[in-house]
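RECORD TYPE: inverse folding
INPUT: structure tokens
STRUCTURE:
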């Protein structure tokens, strides 16, 4: 791309043609042209100098930015664009990453070591002046681990926002990264580039201003865009402001020089698919739509097999844009199918069609080649308003904050760009398919196909980007040689990925777009869909909402949505990538090193394939060699030998390479969690309960225990991430299997006007109950509509199908479920009996019931009377608990204490009683600590049950004690501290059989020996104690001392009860940790018992 002085008989055009033949077709094609047509030879072409894109050594510096702008945008670089009506069309700055080989390279042009990440090199000397520099970097990489290799090449490129010819972006920055950079640091050097470009003689002055900054959906890029491009408000009285001020809801915030932040539409589209595939689902009204619901709907197509549906819904295929497009296109076709006969399937199908249409408003403008620009804006406006309405209704339960922010930013940028282009010339064509970073992805494709090496390090990538820029600049100087992109026949095509301007048939002239009217029409389209899905009352007055200060589409409640990372974003985002470095052995200094320089060659690159890259003038001190023990070594060879980690080469499969996966990593066994399927086990034989079936379960309210009818969404084994669509009944009922049922509670009403409680039926209203919301004004979220419960609590039902309306003449009424009241009453009695109503069992068992506070349960009959609830609950269930901050009297001694401190206070009484320390003078007359005392109050009459979620650290404690401290942190209470030394907490007995709820019996830690003696005696002796239980019930000497127990009493009690001392128990604890670690590696577990002294 640099200057070239033609010599001999060759013209510049002939040299350009020869270069293109070599670069695009290879040396054999050039040889054929030379012999047949007399074009320059390979040796002549190899003398062509190509301006080098300088990769950043550390964090991008102003000097590197200026050099790259001069080289790639200056004379001999990208041709200067022509003015339109005396103005330069704006440019879009694109930033994206591409996977790098994690190696260091020696850059002879600058005498620098290239390939370290920019995030951790501020303290590193990279100028190669001696062998000590290499050794210092080696130590930082592998021993101190204060820096690491760049695993991702951050590329910044620039291209015009408009035009149908020569729209390939020009790279202007390359910086290796380990992907741990904070948004503030990223935004800092991007701001520096904007300043440099604006002031550079070959920047804004000849190529036009930068109008927008585009990136993919990576969290740090999004945060940097937000901080950089939302810092100041557009003046509504300016020329641009006048064109945009009549668009209610449009956000007016911009960045320095009026720059806007935007995202890549393709990334948004593939994240739509990721969201649909996520098992957490989306909330639409009162329906939680899961990935299993979508699979079930896809199977309604006659040509759709289960394998095809699962392939479309494969959650591991996050990078496949054509498959994401196909998925949404298939869902849009559901509207053409007959309504399903199953009531719940029909209800969910309607919500899935709503989701498809909402996402289709965004998708279709980018793939419908016959859509004109006005229609594109109309659809995008509909999407923007529709998602804002759903955010107001559901918060982030519809789409994630990251997806909301990125998609809305794209629409804002497109509208601003149209208005800006209209201010220059009404005849300018504008292709919204150029929004975002898709064109930069095309450049990445070019660099991967320039030679046989599909992977590259930072220096190789800089060279390939330089060659790619030279190819595009050559075509731009010789437009008649460029075929351009092929015009594709895309009508009715599915799974479209890349669309180019030559394929677009719709009118994209900016002068034919009335922004005000199309914006309003899109708003009306959104309201029409909302009314169709819900009802007239759900129509949104967007004009009134957006007339409020600081309220717009990007901040519908006054706060910007998705500007910062949220864990909920994982529903629609790709897996996070971590920075790491692997150890590498270094060559023996005594070995003989051949003085050769092959560090710049990949394994698959031939020598004749190399083109000479124009070099920056070297400093006098720089040379190719460095002395080690008096011997000259090539610098590049030493850098490659000492600073290249093992396993650094990336795989060649693009989808894995893009994620930075190495060959070594690709050969490792796959994690089972990545292979989640949607099909249940083989259903041949046995009774099954399936997704979509109805079950009944008792649930907990603040005021009682009613029965709820629940539609099953899916099943899970506790602690597993696998979703199942069905499960055997005997497995569901087995408490040892710990099956979890996920579903939604149905709203049921009485079917007829019979006064008998035994003869009428309950029918489903096609609505799902909401719970957990104190007021109707609260946003409706997934947690307020979805219940999770143990499979042992779910009792299958046998409903009938009838018309929702009783009038026989209404043949269009939807079908619904009908269940006899007698069936539900019988199941309620059975479910209550199955909870084991003994006083010491019922408290814990009731604690396992799903809690549905603030709901409309119990169901009510025609007379408004509560039905289907447990009457005459035992007192142990109805005990009213004391508020957390209340002062309470100790039942044993009468002293006052806050409720949260009572466990510590009572623990002292219990421990002193166990150590036979006389407390009669401190206790109330006639009072004494119970034999099996409650840890909350010290009495014998209370029950307690610990519930642990399998595969999780989450625990809950249920008790009928009036002093039960419900807000106790279990993990904190288990630790002895100076301020709170008591560790008397409820623990499980691993020896006792589990209950029907799958939980073992519970006892208080201080009561451990009593429980073993009472429940597990062996010939009047205590049983052998499992090591884990021994560790859990052991009371350390420190705790006893802080609890007021003298050492003599502690030692005497331990000797009498043959309890090990602290050192022995700590040794057992260490053994357990070691065995758990070994078990995790081998997949085997060992069962041992600890014998008492």
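DESIGNED SEQUENCE:
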């Amino acid at each position: 791309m640099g200057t070239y002085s033609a010599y001999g008989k060759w013209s510049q055009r002939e040299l350009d043609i020869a270069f293109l033949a070599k670069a695009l077709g290879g040396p054999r094609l050039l040889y054929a042209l030379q012999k047949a047509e007399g074009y320059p030879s390979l040796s002549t072409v190899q003398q062509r100098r190509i301006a080098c894109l300088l990769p950043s050594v550390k964090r991008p510096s102003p000097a590197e930015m200026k050099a790259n702008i001069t080289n790639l945008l200056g004379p001999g670089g990208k041709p200067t664009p022509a003015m339109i009506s005396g103005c330069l069309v704006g440019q879009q700055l694109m930033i994206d990453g591409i996977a790098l080989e994690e190696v260091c390279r020696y850059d002879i042009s600058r005498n620098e070591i290239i390939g370290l990440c920019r995030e951790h090199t501020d303290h590193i000397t990279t100028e190669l002046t001696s062998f000590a520099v290499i050794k210092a970097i080696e130590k930082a990489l592998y021993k101190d681990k204060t820096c690491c290799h760049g695993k991702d090449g951050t590329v910044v490129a620039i291209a015009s926002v408009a035009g149908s010819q020569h729209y390939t972006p020009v790279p202007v920055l390359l910086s290796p990264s380990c992907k741990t950079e904070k948004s503030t640091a990223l935004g800092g050097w991007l701001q520096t580039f904007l300043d440099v470009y604006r002031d550079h003689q070959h920047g804004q002055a000849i190529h036009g201003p930068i109008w927008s900054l585009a990136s993919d959906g990576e969290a740090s890029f999004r945060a940097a865009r937000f901080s950089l491009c939302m810092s100041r408000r557009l003046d509504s009285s300016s020329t641009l402001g006048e064109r945009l001020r009549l668009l209610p809801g449009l956000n007016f915030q911009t960045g320095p020089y009026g720059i806007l932040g935007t995202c890549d539409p393709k990334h948004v589209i593939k994240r739509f698919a990721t969201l649909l595939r996520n098992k957490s689902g989306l909330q639409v009204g009162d329906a939680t739509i899961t990935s299993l619901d979508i699979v079930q709907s896809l199977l309604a197509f006659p040509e759709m097999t289960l394998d095809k549906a699962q392939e479309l819904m494969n959650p591991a295929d996050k990078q496949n844009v054509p498959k994401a497009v196909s998925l949404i296109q298939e869902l849009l076709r559901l509207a053409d199918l007959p309504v399903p006969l199953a009531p719940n399937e029909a209800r969910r199908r309607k919500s899935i069609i709503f989701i498809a249409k909402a996402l289709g408003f965004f998708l279709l403008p980018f793939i419908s080649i016959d859509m004109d620009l006005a229609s594109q804006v109309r659809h995008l406006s509909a999407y923007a308003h529709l998602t804002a309405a759903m955010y107001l209704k559901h918060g982030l339960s519809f789409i994630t904050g990251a997806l909301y922010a990125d998609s809305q930013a794209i629409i804002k940028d497109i509208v601003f760009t149209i208005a800006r282009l209209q201010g220059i010339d009404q005849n300018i064509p504008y292709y919204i398919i150029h929004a975002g970073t898709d064109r930069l992805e095309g450049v990445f494709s070019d660099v991967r196909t320039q030679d046989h090496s599909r992977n590259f390090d930072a220096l190789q990538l800089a060279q390939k980007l330089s060659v790619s820029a030279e190819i595009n600049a050559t075509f731009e100087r010789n437009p008649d040689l460029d075929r351009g992109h092929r015009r594709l026949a895309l009508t009715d095509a599915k799974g479209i990925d890349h669309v180019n301007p030559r394929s677009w048939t719709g009118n994209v002239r900016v002068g034919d777009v009335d922004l005000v009217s199309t914006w309003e029409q899109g708003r009306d389209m959104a309201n029409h869909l909302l009314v169709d899905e819900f009802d007239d009352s759900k129509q949104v007055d967007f004009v009134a909402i957006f007339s409020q200060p600081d309220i717009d589409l990007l901040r519908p409640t006054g706060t910007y949505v998705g500007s910062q990372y949220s864990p909920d974003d994982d529903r629609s985002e790709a897996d996070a990538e971590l920075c790491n470095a692997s150890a590498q052995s270094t060559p023996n200094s005594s070995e003989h090193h051949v003085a050769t320089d092959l560090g710049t060659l990949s394994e698959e690159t031939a020598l004749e394939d190399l083109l000479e890259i124009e070099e920056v003038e070297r400093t006098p001190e720089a040379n190719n060699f460095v002395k080690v023990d008096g011997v000259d070594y090539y610098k590049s060879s030493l850098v490659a030998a000492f600073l290249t980690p093992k396993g650094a080469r990336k795989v060649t499969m693009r989808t894995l390479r893009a994620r930075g996966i190495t060959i070594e990593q690709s050969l490792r066994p796959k994690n089972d969690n990545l292979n989640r399927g949607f099909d249940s086990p083989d259903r041949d034989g046995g009774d099954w309960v399936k997704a979509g079936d109805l079950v009944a379960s008792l649930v907990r309210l603040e005021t009682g225990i009613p029965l709820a009818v629940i539609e099953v969404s899916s099943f899970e084994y506790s602690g597993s991430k696998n979703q199942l669509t069905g499960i055997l009944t005997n497995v569901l009922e087995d408490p040892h299997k710990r099956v979890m049922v996920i579903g939604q509670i149905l709203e049921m009403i009485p079917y007829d006007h019979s006064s008998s409680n035994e003869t009428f039926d309950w029918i489903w209203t096609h609505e799902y109950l909401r719970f957990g919301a104190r007021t109707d004004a609260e946003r409706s979220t997934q947690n307020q509509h979805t219940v999770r419960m143990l499979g042992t609590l779910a009792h299958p039902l046998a409903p009938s199908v009838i018309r929702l309306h009783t009038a026989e003449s209404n043949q269009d009424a939807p079908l619904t479920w009908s269940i006899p009241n007698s069936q539900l009453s019988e199941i309620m009695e059975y479910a209550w009996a199955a909870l084991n109503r003994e006083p010491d069992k019922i408290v814990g068992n009731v604690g396992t019931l799903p809690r549905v506070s603030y709901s409309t349960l119990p169901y009510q009959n025609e007379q408004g009377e509560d039905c289907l609830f447990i009457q005459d609950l035992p007192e142990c269930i109805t005990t009213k608990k004391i508020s957390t901050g209340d002062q309470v009297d100790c039942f044993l001694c009468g002293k006052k204490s806050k409720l949260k401190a009572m466990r510590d206070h009572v623990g002292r009484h219990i421990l002193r009683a166990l150590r036979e320390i006389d407390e009669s003078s401190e206790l109330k007359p006639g009072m004494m600590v119970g034999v099996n005392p409650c840890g909350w109050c010290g009495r014998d009459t209370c029950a307690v049950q610990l519930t642990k979620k399998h595969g999780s650290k989450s625990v809950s404690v249920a008790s009928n004690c009036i002093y039960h401290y419900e807000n106790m942190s279990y993990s904190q209470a288990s630790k002895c501290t100076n301020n709170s030394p008591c560790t008397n907490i409820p623990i499980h007995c691993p020896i006792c059989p589990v209950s029907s709820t799958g939980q073992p019996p519970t006892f208080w830690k201080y009561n451990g020996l009593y429980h073993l003696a009472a429940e597990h005696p062996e010939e009047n002796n205590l049983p052998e104690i499992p090591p884990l239980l021994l560790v859990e019930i052991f009371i350390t000497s420190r705790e006893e001392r802080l609890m007021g127990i003298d050492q003599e009493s502690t030692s005497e009690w331990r000797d009498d009860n043959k309890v090990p001392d602290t050192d022995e128990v700590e040794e057992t604890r260490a053994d357990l940790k070691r065995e758990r670690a070994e078990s995790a590696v081998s997949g085997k577990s060992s069962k041992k018992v600890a014998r008492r002294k």
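NOTES: The mean pLDDT is 83.
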